[in-house]
Design goal:
By secondary structure, the chain is mainly α. It has a domain at 85-137. It is 36% helix and 7% strand. The protein is built from six helices and three strands; from the N terminus they run ααααββααβ. The chain has helices spanning 5-15, 29-39, 53-63, 77-87, 103-109, 115-124, and strands spanning 89-93, 99-100, 133-137. Strands 2-1-3 form a three-stranded antiparallel β-sheet. A hairpin with a 5-residue loop joins strand 1 (89-93) and strand 2 (99-100). Helix 5 crosses helix 6 (115-124). The longest helix has 11 residues, at 5-15. The radius of gyration is 25 Å and the shape is elongated.
């Protein structure tokens, strides 16, 4: 038999504001290795199970209104450049011989939307959507290539700017 709701509430109130005993203590490399070895081969309790629609809805409701974990964090310029460089390559379809400037363009050509996944599989030498792909990295990568796509237009919610409305 577990604790009553009232007891759990009292314990919770008593612990609020207390600092954990191990806060700020760094683990040694030996300890990290021991923890890693102890966890090797363990699988998640939910591995291989699919969640019911009801469970998914409950989780969705629970997340609504909460900020994402990475909100407020910013990538360093170095990280941004690494990400841009990793995606700057040409993709060639081995079967058709067609060359694409981006992985997304290559993915769209075969009716898919996952350019990053195509790029990953192409680098591993695996087929995607029944086609084999070759990646050629661009050595002449221009880190400022995205600047030409930036706009000086600022959009305020609720404000209509006629110069950016497409009437086609």
């Amino acid at each position: 038999m577990g604790l009553s709701v009232e007891t759990k509430q009292k314990i919770s109130e008593a612990k609020k504001g207390s600092i954990p005993w191990n806060k700020g203590i760094e683990c040694s490399e030996e300890t990290k290795k021991k923890i890693g070895d102890a966890n090797k081969g363990r699988t998640s309790v939910l591995k291989g199970q699919s969640l019911s629609e009801e469970a998914c809805k409950k989780m969705s409701e629970g997340h609504k209104g909460k900020a994402p974990n990475n909100k407020g964090t910013h990538l360093s310029e170095e990280s941004k450049q690494k990400m841009l460089k990793s995606r700057s390559c040409s993709i060639k379809c081995v079967e058709t011989g067609e060359v694409f400037g981006t992985a997304l363009a290559a993915a769209k050509s075969v009716g898919a939307t996952k350019g990053a996944y195509l790029l990953k599989l192409a680098r591993e030498g695996k087929p995607y959507k029944g086609y084999h792909w070759e990646v050629s990295e661009n050595d002449d990568f221009d880190p400022n290539w995205g600047e030409k796509y930036k706009s000086n237009i600022s959009i305020v919610p609720g404000e209509i700017k006629p110069e950016i409305i497409n009437v086609d």
